[in-house]
Each structure stands twice: as structure tokens, then as C-alpha cells.
Write a structure and sequence with these properties.
This protein is an all-alpha fold and about 325 residues long. The chain has helices spanning about 5-15, 25-40, 45-55, 75, 80-90, 115-130, 135-150, 195-205, 210-220, 225-235, 235-255, 275-280, 290-320, and strands at about 170-175, 180, 190, 285-290. The strands form two sheets. A two-stranded parallel ribbon has the order 1-4. A two-stranded antiparallel sheet has the order 2-3. The termini are far apart.
């Protein structure tokens, strides 16, 4: 068989097995956050969520990446913002590009003109709290919050190293070698890459044969003391953002034996920019095996539990004035 055909077939297979790019946590991670949050809702918040989501359903004609078979409205809502992000052109709402090497301080300078996840959370909180706002707008604000609080806790949605949040960092994930995902090699896009494995592969490998419902039960039980501490600390979106950024530094980048240096603070339109970022990272031959997976899974479990608890805090707070 022609070697080019074999290569293209392999690439196509990889693409079919991967989630759409830059969607934090993939389907199961976002669903887990929603399920954990449900366990911590007040009766008022539960009533508000049920009313808004049931009376303002998602368009049944919308293509759903994660399917729409679930009857749990919060779980269903958790992935909706990724389904509409291209149509609504609000991709920047899902992340904040804090350069590597930064520590604490004001976040506004890292939020571009098109917005970022921290601003989006505050804007959607205000809409949800507004009892005079249109019911459909409040339902959409609720769906955005369910998703964006999860996004904020994915470490690679709070950092940038001139690598598009890790999308320009090819990695071998166990036996899966990184391959070019385009017929235009000048773009230097590879799969698996660092962002992709943190979105999906690490979570799903940690789940093993479980499912989001069971995984949420396990994490909520495991982190019940931490949940109480989070609830006592209150809602501090900026603090949560810096925690996520610091976790990206330590648990994502610094966890490799090979040093990944701090790059210039630039945003890339292509992984071929910044002196061939994709190719330079490919040539490092970064690999994720049992040791990296084990440490990453511990971080993932912590942040999914935190995200669920903190999402519930935001919704409980909104229900106090919005019911």
C-alpha cells in the first residue's frame, strides 16, 4: 500500500479518536464537575437550576459533541458552550492567557479585547442574578457558568507559553506517538499534544472503567474535607485563577524530566510561529507514561472536585437573590 495513504489513514484515525480542540476536560470531565456541583446545591439553587434549564431547553437541532441522551439538565448544560463557541465566536471566553513565570497580581492585563474566562464568569454571574433579565439569557448564563468554572480549573486554560495553552506541545501518550494532524506540515499541529491529554486522556485513564456519575461520587467522598474548606473560604475567582496557573507550572510543565523553558510572551496563530514552536517541542520527544500520569491524575482529581464545589457556591449565591 502507498506509504502516503497509510500515513493519511493513521492521521484520520487519530483525528476521529480525539475531542474537538481546546475544549477543557472533554465531555466526561465537564460532566463530572456538574455532578459534583449538584451534590452541594441548596434547595433554592436546585429549584432555580431546574426551572431555568427546563423552561429554556437547548435547541434540539444543535449538533452536540457529547451527545444529548442524558436527562440530567446540569450535565447536559455542562458541554453546551463548546457546541456553540464557533457559531458565537466567543472562544476566548474559555481561557485566560497568563504567561508562564507570572505570579499573583491583577488579571485584567491578561484578558484580551475579546474577553477571557474570568471576565466571562463575572459577566454571566451578573446575568444569572438579575431577576429582571430575559429568562433565556439567564438560562444561557447558567450553562456558561457550569462550563466556565470547569474551564478555569483546567490548568492549561490559565497559562500560555507561546504554545497556545499547550496545543503546540506534541507529546507521546503511553504508546501513542504524536503525528501531524494536517496535510499542511507548515502548521506544525500534532496529536496527541499537551493540552489534549490534559483535557481528556488523563481524566479518562484515571476513570478507568468508571463513568462520570460514579467518578463524581468517588471524588466528592474523597475530597469532602477540602470541599468544606472551599465553602468556608468563599467565592474568589481571581484566587482560583492563580491557583490554576500555578498548578500548570508545577503539575503540567515542570513534571517532565526534560526542561521546557519559558518562551517569549506572544500569542500564536500557528504552531509554526515563534521559531517553529511545534517542531521545537516535537524534537524534545516529551513522553507521558505511568509516573507523569499518576501525578497528573492526583492534580486532576483535586481540581475537578474543587471546580464542582466552587460552581455550587456560585449557583447557591445566585439563588439567594435570583429565586
Amino acid at each position: 500500500m502507498n506509504h502516503r495513504i497509510v500515513l493519511l489513514a493513521g492521521i484520520f484515525a487519530v483525528l476521529m479518536l480525539t475531542a474537538p480542540p481546546a475544549n477543557a476536560w472533554g465531555c466526561k470531565g465537564h460532566q463530572t464537575v456538574a455532578l459534583i456541583a449538584e451534590k452541594h446545591l441548596t434547595s433554592e439553587a436546585r429549584q432555580l437550576v431546574q426551572k431555568l434549564l427546563s423552561e429554556n431547553p437547548i435547541d434540539p437541532k444543535l449538533k452536540r459533541w457529547c451527545g444529548n441522551a442524558t436527562s440530567d439538565l446540569m450535565v447536559d448544560a455542562s458541554t453546551w458552550p463548546d457546541d456553540v463557541r464557533n457559531e458565537r465566536k466567543n472562544g476566548p471566553w474559555h481561557y485566560i492567557d497568563i504567561p508562564r513565570g507570572k505570579h499573583k497580581g491583577e488579571l485584567d492585563e491578561y484578558c484580551g479585547s475579546e474577553g477571557c474566562v474570568t471576565h466571562a464568569i463575572e459577566e454571566q454571574r451578573a446575568i444569572l442574578k438579575d431577576r429582571s433579565a430575559d429568562s433565556m439569557k439567564r438560562a444561557e448564563a447558567l450553562r456558561y457558568l457550569i462550563h466556565f468554572v470547569g474551564d478555569l480549573h483546567q490548568p492549561l486554560h490559565a497559562i500560555n507559553n507561546a504554545d497556545n495553552g499547550g496545543n503546540c506541545v506534541p507529546v507521546k501518550f503511553f504508546r501513542h506517538e504524536p503525528l501531524l494532524t494536517t496535510q499542511h506540515p507548515e502548521r506544525e499541529d500534532y496529536s496527541p499534544n499537551l493540552h489534549q491529554i490534559w483535557d481528556t486522556e488523563i481524566v479518562e485513564r484515571d476513570m478507568e472503567i468508571s463513568n462520570p456519575l460514579r467518578y463524581a461520587d468517588e471524588l466528592d467522598e474523597k475530597f469532602h474535607m477540602e470541599a468544606a474548606a472551599s465553602e468556608a473560604a468563599g467565592i474568589h475567582v481571581d484566587t482560583w485563577t492563580w491557583e490554576s496557573h500555578e498548578r500548570a507550572e508545577t503539575a503540567v510543565y515542570d513534571a517532565f524530566p526534560e526542561k521546557i523553558g519559558i518562551e517569549p510572551d506572544v500569542k500564536l496563530k500557528s504552531c509554526a510561529e515563534n521559531n517553529h514552536m511545534g517542531k521545537r517541542m516535537f524534537e524534545k520527544h516529551l513522553a507521558v507514561g505511568e509516573a507523569y500520569q499518576s501525578n497528573a491524575a492526583k492534580a486532576v482529581e483535586t481540581v475537578l472536585a474543587e471546580a464542582g464545589t466552587r460552581l455550587a457556591m456560585i449557583l447557591n449565591d445566585a439563588a439567594k437573590v435570583a429565586n
